[in-house]
Write a structure and sequence with these properties.
The complex is a heterodimer of chains A (about 190) and B (about 100). Chain A has helices at about 1-15, 20-30, 55-70, 85-95, 110-125, 140-150, 165-190, and strands spanning about 40, 75-80, 105, 130-135, 155-160. Chain A is α/β, with parallel strands linked by helices and about 190 residues long. In chain A, helix 1 crosses helix 7 and helix 2 (about 20-30) packs across helix 7. The N and C termini of chain A lie far apart (about 35 Å). The termini of chain B are far apart. Classes of the chains: A alpha/beta (about 190), B mainly alpha (about 100).
């Protein structure tokens, strides 16, 4: 039990006070491929608060997606998430100059698998196959696998490269990495 | 000061107050310096127990979430179990169990 305790304490110290989580974050993101595509897909994350304000991560993603649209990398912007999240994102995109006709807003989705299936239904019938995938760096391996499984050619466009530099932020990041790795294993086991 | 140096501030504060606690404990509190090694071992044991509880809580939480999804077709996010309160509560339980064990001797 003492060895487990020692491992836990050392793990917390390494995670909080060294750039280890940041390195893992960058490793999981891989190299961004910001190239022309058929559509920009902004994945849901965290929904919106009860007052309709997007969570930090959701906001980061949609702003990155809008930036890619304004750089004319794709003519279509797909906004995903819970119904409140997708609505708030679409409102924000319109207010920042994205035309309504360029926005495709998904109905409420809860899991990445549902997201992949619905985005496939929205884009693939129109021949829109090459997508810029906007997500957090740690989400890219799993979400990329799901989108490729659905039939897309994926160009990763992660929101950030390294992540936070304060101890609390790094601990949160390591927790998210651990959660994401469990999710990745679960998706692999279930054939996604 | 660089961001990396700033991020070490909690460690510096902790180190200074730990040194103060050692001086006060050994100087005025009547605590034996030789017992510090044993106390650190006890702390690691409590943390280890807390880690075990945390792993158990995460496993049970995951099974519950997947079970509710499967049986009721109602969506519950898997992230509900990754809240920061869970490790804290796990360590609190480890402390209680440890003291309970000592009181039971």
């Amino acid at each position: 039990m003492r060895i487990l305790g020692l491992v836990a304490v050392l793990g917390v110290l390494l995670a909080a006070f060294t750039p280890l989580p940041n390195r893992l974050n960058a490793l999981m993101a891989g190299s961004p491929r910001l190239e022309p595509a058929d559509a920009i897909v902004v994945l849901g994350r965290g929904g919106a608060d009860s007052d309709g304000v997007l969570t930090n991560r959701s906001l980061r993603r949609v702003l990155h997606g809008i930036d890619l649209y304004r750089r004319a990398l794709a003519p279509v912007l797909v906004l995903s998430g819970t119904s409140e999240e997708a609505r708030a994102r679409a409102d924000l995109a319109r207010s920042l100059g994205v035309p309504t006709g360029a926005i495709r807003q998904l109905a409420s989705v809860h899991t990445t698998r549902e997201e992949g299936e619905q985005i496939g239904l929205v884009l693939l019938p129109d021949g829109l196959r090459r997508i810029l995938l906007v997500g957090d760096p740690i989400d890219i391996p799993r979400t990329r696998a799901v989108m490729e499984h659905v039939g897309f050619t994926v160009l990763p466009a992660p929101t950030a490269a390294t992540g936070p530099s304060v101890p609390e932020g790094r601990l949160n990041l390591l927790r998210d990495i651990a959660t994401e790795l469990v999710g990745l294993a679960y998706y692999r086991l279930t054939g996604w | 000061m660089t961001p990396d140096a700033r991020s070490l501030a909690p460690l510096v504060i902790f180190g200074l107050t730990s040194l103060g606690a050692y001086v006060a404990g050994a100087g005025f509190g009547g605590l034996r310096p030789s017992a510090l090694r044993e106390a650190t071992g006890d702390m690691l044991e409590t943390v280890g127990l807390g880690t075990l509880f945390l792993l158990g809580n995460l496993a049970v939480g995951t099974v519950l979430v997947l079970g509710v999804r499967e049986l009721t077709h109602h969506f519950v996010s898997i992230y509900v179990g990754s809240d920061v309160t869970l490790p804290m509560l796990s360590v609190v339980r480890a402390l209680v169990v440890r003291h309970w064990r000592e009181r039971s001797r």
